[in-house]
């Protein structure tokens, strides 16, 4: 074996991991060594003869996890999400339960917990500043929530549950990816593709060719609403595509039921009624009752709006002489027609003005320059983990700030959706500057064609870059509380705020330029696009809330209430899902939840009982957008205030406190209700 690149810090700029030197055989030994190193350090802390202090206990614990283990974990989990293979999947299956057991060895170490408690007891007399205090509070909370106060039997059971949950989560996610690949729809008659643009047809032909089959292949993304449903004129193909998309999940039914039961048991072991209550207790929401109440209130208005939209769609169908009732696979197609008829908006006409690099450089990066003084230089000399992962150096008023890696195209080896990961964590303790990666699933153009993206892709680019900014602008002392390490129902807020620049006139004028001529998009087209964006809030809110309420429903069960899978676990899961949506008043046959249970990746990982976070964060987002508008919009002064009070703080102080410092008061919900038409 060549020398393992994870065993020492990278000597590349910003400690960018040396991807070219990494082979699959390096991961497992590095994980094993990293865990051993940390346990040795933790034992030394727990058995220290000196009396416990903040430095020799809390800071020492913080340092214990920063070596080999951190380096390999950040690289591995990014790679396994964005460019996996059978070997990596096997490594994930092996290492996930081991990492869970490793975490438990630390959290359930009684001598270590006793020292943390001792420091906690003295916290008022230690002269800690707010970042120190936050770190101490996070560790103490993590230990208590991790079962440190349980008796020996309770600890043993909890540890067994955590290990099994880790196994189940990797199984669940690997199944989702293989289902996405299996559910691709094969088309052999070109006429069926009527309505698609040449670029989309070319992309489908390339996808077929890549798998060595004739004709065209419509690949899946993970959402219930396939993006091509809005273009396909052939109603039969629309139905086939829709059913393939939402019919996934049978292979995950048993795993899901088991995960839900184990989580319910874990919550009760730790003194909570159910898992939703356990999760909410450590979020800004505070308790599951408040979440349920708020979601229920929004659901009613959303469905009312969606029904009104459905009636408008049916009118178009009838006017066309369609003679059929609106079905789920018709919704996107006719919504597009309504946008065109009502607002004159033609998405195809906008497309040539949405070239990926222009959107990114002249839109996303441009807004960050105006707001924060950041500039970007592509570093073709620095290698990513895949040929399509490009690296930019980021400068802050000319000073080196960090690296941004962008990996935009979809491929069979990439998980669905879009996300941001850190590759190097910013910290004053270590002196490390941030390196972050954005992953998207933009359909790759066929060879030689420009990468023209959709309006949804544009939103996602701004959104994910908002997470990247939260990472890049972080100026925190401790890795544990830096960058995006905030409660989940807060973390989507900065990314959502960044979406506001997508249609900000100055930004739009800068990036919406014709990919061939460089000509600006006509003002009328832009105005139509903005107006048309207001149609469809009912659908968007309903599909989102469907998923959020479904996630809550699964996790509000006590262990006894979790249904038994019997002979047909998929039928059991589907029946539960239907009833949960009906009970929540959000069920509409024409609108599937954004994710159905069997392909709801969020609930296998960190967002279990936390999918409500998006709308929770959006309350802060909408309130913040109001502030920017009141203060004159996209200016350095506004950006610097947002950065100083909020973005740079990461999770190093209480997030609601940072919000108050930014806004001068608590957030109010009115701007959100206004935006989504939910009054
Ligand atoms: Zn996000």
From TrEMBL:
Provide the GO biological process annotations: proteolysis
Cellular component, GO, one term:
cytosol
Entry keyword set: Hydrolase, Metal-binding, Metalloprotease, Protease, Zinc
Q: What would you give as a GO molecular function for this chain, any one?
A: metal ion binding
* Superkingdom, taxonomy of origin: Bacteria
Residues annotated as domain Peptidase M3A/M3B catalytic:
229-677
Entry cofactors: Zn(2+)
Copy out the cofactor comment. Answer: Binds 1 zinc ion.
Q: Which InterPro entries match?
A: M3A_DCP (IPR034005), MetalloPept_cat_dom_sf (IPR024079), Neurolysin/TOP_dom2 (IPR024077), Pept_M3A_M3B (IPR045090), Pept_M3A_M3B_dom (IPR001567)
Is Acyltransferase given among the entry's keywords? no
Show the stretches that span the lipid bilayer: none
Q: What is the similarity comment for this entry?
A: Belongs to the peptidase M3 family.
What is the official name of this protein in its record?
Peptidyl-dipeptidase Dcp
What is the organism field in this record? Glycomyces algeriensis
């Amino acid at each position: 074996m060549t020398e393992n690149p994870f065993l020492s810090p990278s000597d590349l700029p910003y400690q960018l991991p040396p991807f070219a030197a990494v082979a699959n055989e390096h991961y497992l030994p590095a994980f094993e060594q990293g865990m051993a190193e940390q346990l040795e350090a933790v034992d030394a802390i727990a058995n220290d003869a000196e009396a416990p202090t903040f430095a020799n206990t809390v800071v020492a614990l913080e340092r214990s996890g920063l070596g080999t283990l951190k380096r390999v974990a950040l690289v591995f989990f990014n790679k396994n999400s964005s460019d996996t293979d059978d070997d990596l999947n096997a490594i994930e299956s092996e290492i996930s339960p081991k990492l869970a057991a490793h975490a438990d060895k630390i959290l359930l170490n009684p001598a270590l917990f006793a020292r943390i408690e001792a420091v906690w007891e003295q916290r008022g007399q230690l002269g800690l500043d707010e970042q120190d205090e936050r770190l101490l509070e996070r560790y103490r909370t993590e230990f208590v929530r991790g079962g440190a106060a349980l008796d020996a039997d309770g600890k043993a059971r909890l540890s067994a549950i955590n290990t099994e949950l880790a196994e189940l989560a990797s199984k669940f996610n690997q199944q989702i990816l293989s289902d996405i690949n299996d559910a691709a729809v094969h088309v052999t008659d070109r006429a069926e593709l009527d309505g698609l643009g040449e670029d989309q047809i070319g992309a489908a032909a390339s996808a077929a060719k890549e798998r060595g089959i004739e004709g065209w292949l419509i690949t899946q993304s993970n959402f219930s609403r396939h993006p091509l449903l809005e273009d396909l004129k052939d109603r039969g193909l629309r139905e086939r595509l829709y059913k393939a998309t939402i019919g996934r999940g049978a292979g995950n039914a048993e795993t899901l039921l088991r995960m839900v039961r184990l989580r319910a048991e874990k919550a009760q072991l730790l003194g909570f009624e159910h898992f939703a209550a356990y999760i909410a207790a450590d979020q800004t929401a505070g308790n599951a009752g408040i979440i349920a109440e708020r979601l229920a209130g929004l659901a009613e208005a959303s469905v009312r709006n969606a029904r009104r939209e459905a009636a408008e769609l049916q009118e178009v169908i009838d006017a066309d002489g369609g003679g059929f009732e609106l079905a789920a696979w018709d919704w996107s197609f006719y919504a597009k027609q309504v946008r065109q008829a009502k607002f004159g908006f033609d998405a195809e006409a906008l497309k040539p003005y949405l070239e990926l690099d222009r959107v990114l450089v002249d839109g996303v990066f441009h807004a960050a320059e105006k707001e924060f003084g950041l500039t970007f230089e592509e570093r073709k000399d620095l290698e990513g983990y895949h040929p399509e992962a490009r690296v930019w150096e980021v400068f802050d008023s000319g000073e080196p700030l960090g690296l941004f890696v962008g990996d935009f195209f979809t491929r069979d080896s990439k998980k669905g959706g879009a996300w941001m990961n850190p590759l190097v964590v910013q910290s004053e303790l270590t002196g490390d500057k941030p390196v972050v990666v954005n992953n998207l699933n933009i359909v790759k153009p066929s060879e030689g064609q420009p990468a023209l993206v959709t309006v949804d892709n544009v939103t996602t680019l701004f959104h994910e870059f908002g997470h990247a900014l939260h990472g890049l602008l972080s100026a925190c002392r401790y890795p544990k509380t830096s960058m995006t390490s905030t409660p989940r129902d807060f973390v989507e807020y900065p990314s959502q705020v960044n979406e506001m620049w997508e249609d900000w006139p100055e930004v739009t004028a800068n990036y919406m330029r014709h990919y061939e001529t460089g000509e600006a998009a006509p003002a009328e087209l832009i105005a139509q696009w903005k107006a048309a964006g207001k149609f469809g809030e009912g659908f968007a809110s309903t599909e989102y809330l469907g998923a959020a309420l479904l996630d809550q429903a699964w996790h509000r069960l006590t262990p006894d209430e979790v249904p038994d899978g019997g002979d047909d676990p998929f039928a059991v899961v589907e029946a539960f899902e239907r009833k949960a949506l009906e009970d929540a008043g959000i069920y509409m046959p024409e609108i599937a939840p954004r994710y159905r249970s069997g392909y709801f990746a969020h609930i296998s990982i960190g967002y279990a009982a936390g999918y409500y976070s998006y709308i929770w964060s959006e309350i802060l987002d909408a309130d913040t957008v109001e502030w920017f508008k009141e203060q004159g919009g996209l200016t350095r002064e506004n950006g610097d205030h947002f950065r100083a009070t909020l973005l740079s703080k990461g999770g190093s102080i209480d997030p609601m406190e940072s919000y108050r410092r930014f806004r001068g008061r608590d957030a109010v919900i009115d701007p959100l209700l206004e935006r989504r038409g939910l009054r």
